[in-house]
Amino acid sequence: MPSTAAGTAYTVTTATMPSGGTALLCVATAHAADADIPTILYTHGSQGAYNQFLTTPAWTEFREWIIDNGGAFIEGTGGPTDAAGKGNWGNPGAQTFYVEAFHWGEVVIDIGLLFINGRSMGALVATWLYLLSEIASRVTGLIVSSGVQTLAYGTAGGASSVAPSVDYFGTTCRAAYGVADSGDEMADIAAAITASAPYDPMNFDPNLWTGKNVIQLVGDADTTVPPGVRGAYPLRALYAGKPAIDRLDVRAGGDHLTTNGTYYQVAPMTTFLSDLGFGTAVEEPEPFYYEITSTEYYADGNLYQLEGFTPPV
User: Fold this and answer.
1) Which of 97, 217, 227, 278 could bond 262 through an S-S bridge, CB–CB 3.0 to 4.6 Å?
2) Which CATH superfamily is domain 10-150+200-287 in?
3) Which tens digit of pLDDT belongs to each residue from 87-131?
4) Which of 188, 187, 251 shows the shortest CA–CA distance to 225?
5) Does the reported pTM lie above 0.85?
6) CA 67 – CA 31 distance, rounded (Å)
7) CA 183, CA 148: separation in Å to the nearest integer?
8) Closest to 198 (Cα-Cα) out of 45, 46, 90
9) pLDDT band per the 50, 70, 90 thresholds, residue 269
10) CA dist 242 to 133, 150, 238, 271, Å?
């Protein structure tokens, strides 16, 4: 039986959803029969497999924190097939799948507090699940990890740094909304903006955020989902002042990669969850520094010069 680094055994269950696609549920084995199990519904990024959260090394610390604290998580393909789910971009197939995955999960375990964790592309459907889906009233809080939060915002045909999602992410993003490659990219972008409008979080009623709990995690060196264009900042400007908890965590120098992304912002994510009633937060380590006050040392009544002195690490 698999276990976390702390020795907490866990159980993984999978099933095929009514609309197709595979869902996965992972729960601490000793707590699988508990009442009111805190649960995270994870919506994966572009090209993510049904088990992205379970198998991505960058998620290990956060994932194992969930299990070690007696929780569970649900994830899956995000569509009726692996291929469709990998490039769903928050489309109707993704919406249907994740609602089905939740309902399947609540049969397998007794779900208590429910949180959505949307990663990159998956943040589009995560935001819809939290605000507009039939399970919205069940959800306590939303975590957005370097999430795509806009589809049309930006300047089409310009530099990649200002390109909207339906431009920057190309034909795979547009195809998710039924727009085939016609050979006229600007026309395709315009068609995709129209087709995707009902699924774009920027078009949701800002009042839906009233009283909600959300943390947006971004990297300030993220060029895939720059927070000022395809990411959190435009949407945060729309819902400013409305959520009950509205947090922003910026990873200095953070990019979109598994080696240096917001996956590692475990302290702010677990603090958010703990403040909402789940688990004991991981403490942020206290900053420290060394100060060199002398390059000499005293011994046997004499001062000696330190050669090539470097501070300890």
Assistant:
1) 217
2) Alpha/Beta hydrolase fold, catalytic domain (3.40.50.1820)
3) 999 999 999 999 999 999 999 999 999 999 999 999 999 999 999
4) 251
5) yes
6) 9
7) 26
8) 90
9) very high
10) 19, 19, 9, 20
